[in-house]
């Protein structure tokens, strides 16, 4: 649902923050969909997009938590 051309801007943003920004963008895009366009195909696609965004946030959170744990031992 995003344009895909903003990856360079996200290189400076921590992975978890970038994943959250992506989810916010996705939700804004859903807000723009007219109710008459919310058919079965829309909901299938929306579910897949939300599932991917959720998993990306969880993975980023886990990686961030592991990296913080690595720093605690230093």
Structural features, described:
With 74 residues, the protein is mainly alpha-helical. The chain has one domain (12-68). The protein is 73% helix and 0% strand. It contains three helices and no strands. The protein has helices spanning 7-10, 15-31, 40-72. Helix 2 (15-31) packs antiparallel against helix 3 (40-72). Residues 1-5 have low confidence and may be disordered.
How would you sum up this structure in a few lines?
This protein has helices at 7-10, 15-31, 40-72. With 74 residues, it is mainly alpha-helical. Helix 2 runs antiparallel to helix 3.
Write the topology of this structure.
Elements: H1 7-10, H2 15-31, H3 40-72
């Amino acid at each position: 649902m995003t344009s895909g051309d903003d990856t360079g801007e996200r290189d400076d943003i921590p992975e978890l923050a970038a994943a959250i920004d992506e989810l916010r963008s996705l939700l804004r895009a859903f807000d723009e969909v007219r109710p008459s366009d919310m058919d079965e195909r829309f909901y299938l696609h929306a579910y897949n997009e939300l599932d991917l965004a959720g998993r990306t946030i969880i993975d980023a959170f886990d990686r961030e938590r592991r990296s913080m744990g690595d720093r605690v031992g230093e």
